[in-house]
Amino acid sequence: MSESEAIQTLTSIGEVAATYAAMYFTVTFAYVTVAYLVGKSLSRFQCGAVSALYVLSATAFGAAGLGYVDAWLQLKTREATILDNVWLFQKFVWVEGIIMMLLAICLLSLYFMYDVRRGKRAA
Using CA atoms, how far apart are residues 48 and 123, in angstroms rounded to an integer? Predict the structure, then answer.
């Protein structure tokens, strides 16, 4: 694969990874919005259903995005390009960092729903 083909393929993979990341954050924003606006008035079943749907959707989009990030890193390692000189594109802790970030955001969003439903607020 030529350098220009490798860069074009890396760009395409990066766009797909960014799309999945955008979907993850869209689903998360929707869940937090539901929690804030109507979380307190949801029944226990409704809250459980919305939370389960959120966790499943966030996991699917997060895992797909993470898979594309890993594919991007593997292709970048295999093919020599000018991107090899960019420190930000080195493997170091990308995959582990993204996993921790996705889990933290998901858990924080679930806690937000719990906190809204608990309803104890300081004035």
Answer: 28
Q: Look at residue 29 and tell me whether its pLDDT is greater than 60.
A: yes
Three-state DSSP string of the chain: CCHHHHHHHHHHHHHHHHHHHHHHHHHHHHHHHHHHHHHHHCCHHHHHHHHHHHHHHHHHHHHHHHHHHHHHHHHHHHCCCHHHHCHHHCCCCHHHHHHHHHHHHHHHHHHHHHHHHHCCCCC
Q: Give domain status of residue 92, yes or no.
A: yes
Residue range 69-94, pLDDT digits in tens? 999 999 999 999 999 888 888 766 77
CB-count burial class (<10 Å; 0-12, 13-18, 19+) for 93:
exposed
Distance separating alpha carbons of residues 35 and 58, to the nearest angstrom: 15
Domain range for 69: 3-118
